[in-house]
Amino acid sequence: MPHPQEPPGGIHPLLAGRFSPYRFDPSAVVDDHALGLLLEAARWAPSAGNSQPWGFFVGRPGEPEHDRLLPHLAPSSARWATDAGLLVVTLTRRHVDDTGLLYSEFADHDLGQAVAHMTVQAQAMGLAAHQFRAFDLEGLTKELDPNPGWAVVSMVAIGKAAGGPPQGRERRGVADLRSAPWSSAE
């Protein structure tokens, strides 16, 4: 019987092997073909009403776009994210076109689906992805100046992991996933 923290044998190996590295190989490049595949995977994610309310700003080391992102990283993420072959800023369009609604309750969820697709595609290509929020949101938003209705949500560092997953990774159990919303707080 597998250890409770190890994925069961039936889960897809791409999901079972996924982890968010805190170290990337700075010599590993994410080329144009790989970048195209990552964005294509995100493009095919499901979304409410097929609205596809996501957008991405990408930068690779040595590119001016990358240089625009680095000053906004928090020290905690700058220690490892700068070595990734690709930094992706994720944005969502929270207003609903052609309506008076100012907020789509599904936009952030749908962006999460797109990032998940990108993450699995990265894993399939031998790359790793680490989504994070340790950056200056206000400063990065001012730097990128997205159109009204669009909001920066997170960043994703993608590249070749330097090392494997940490030993003893902790995950909540399936029973907790099913009962936590109705259990009393600890």
From TrEMBL:
Residue ranges annotated for the Nitroreductase domain, each copy included: 16-76
Database matches in InterPro entries: Nitroreductase, Nitroreductase-like
GO MF term list: oxidoreductase activity
Ranges in coiled-coil conformation: none
UniProt entry keywords in alphabetical sequence: Oxidoreductase
Top-level lineage group: Bacteria
Region spans: Disordered: 162-186
Family: Belongs to the nitroreductase family.
Protein's name according to its UniProt entry: Nitroreductase
